[in-house]
Specification:
By secondary structure, this protein is α/β, with parallel strands linked by helices. Helices cover 14% and strands 32% of the residues. The protein contains three helices and 26 strands. Strands 8-11-14-17-20-23-25-26 form an eight-stranded mixed β-sheet, with no helix packed on it. The protein starts with 7 loop residues before the first strand and ends with a strand.
């Protein structure tokens, strides 16, 4: 688990619920230790609120659209707070054109991560998450509040786990998947890339890529275009 020793500046990308929940979690983390100072946020649209967005009494300034970040000439920490994997990937690929933009991993409060967890960059690990031994997590993965990953899990780039997702041991989720609220996956399952699993699904068999699935047990509803 990352240890923060000094408060670092960070800029958030996005203005929706994911961003506002992340702000709250950073506020909670900062009550325990100095971690992140939010400079403001960027979004493709200017917010309706004149002075930006307020979360928990903290006012967040609107800094501009993506061009604000692309024009940065010194190292700048950025967190992409967008839940949809494909949109998050699109934003990241655009921002990576500026080598000064850094994508730290944000590990929020009350998380429990085994010391041998391997993680890429730009990940958001929300509060009350538990990640067990020998788990590998790719780049720009978003794990929402209260989720759990058991031993030997493999999570690809740009995966989103919604709140309270539970993955048993040795589960593989390939790049770009979005796993709905409260979904459960039994041991040893392989889920192909860009799959969307509906809320409350129970996944008991391997899933091909580019699928939309739901149900108990989960079944393929259609192929993604």
């Amino acid at each position: 688990m990352e240890e923060y020793t000094v408060m670092e500046d960070i800029i958030l990308v996005g203005a929706g619920g994911c961003m506002r929940e992340l702000v709250w979690q950073i506020q909670m983390l900062n009550e325990e230790k100095d971690a992140w100072k939010i400079r403001g946020f960027v979004d493709h649209e200017k917010p309706l609120e004149k002075n930006g967005i307020t979360v928990g009494g903290q006012q967040l300034s609107y800094l501009g659209n993506d061009d604000f970040l692309l024009q940065q000439s010194s190292d700048t920490n950025v967190a992409v707070c967008v839940g949809t994997p494909s949109l998050r990937k699109k934003i990241v690929e655009k921002l990576q054109k500026n080598p000064h933009i850094q994508f730290p991993n944000l590990i929020l409060g009350n998380t429990k991560l085994c010391k041998d967890v391997r993680m890429g960059k730009g990940c958001i690990i929300s509060m009350d998450t538990q990640i067990s031994t020998n788990v590998t997590i790719g780049d720009f993965v978003f794990i929402n509040i209260g989720s759990g990953i058991c031993h030997d899990g493999r999570i690809g780039n740009y995966v989103t786990l919604s709140p309270d997702v539970r993955l048993a041991g040795n589960v593989t989720i390939e790049e770009g998947c979005e796993v709905g609220l409260g979904t459960k996956v039994i041991q040893g399952i392989h889920i192909g890339k860009n799959t969307v699993a509906g809320a409350g699904s129970v996944i008991v068999s391997d899933i091909a890529g580019d699928s939309v699935i739901a149900g108990v047990p989960a079944k393929e509803l259609k192929k993604k275009k």
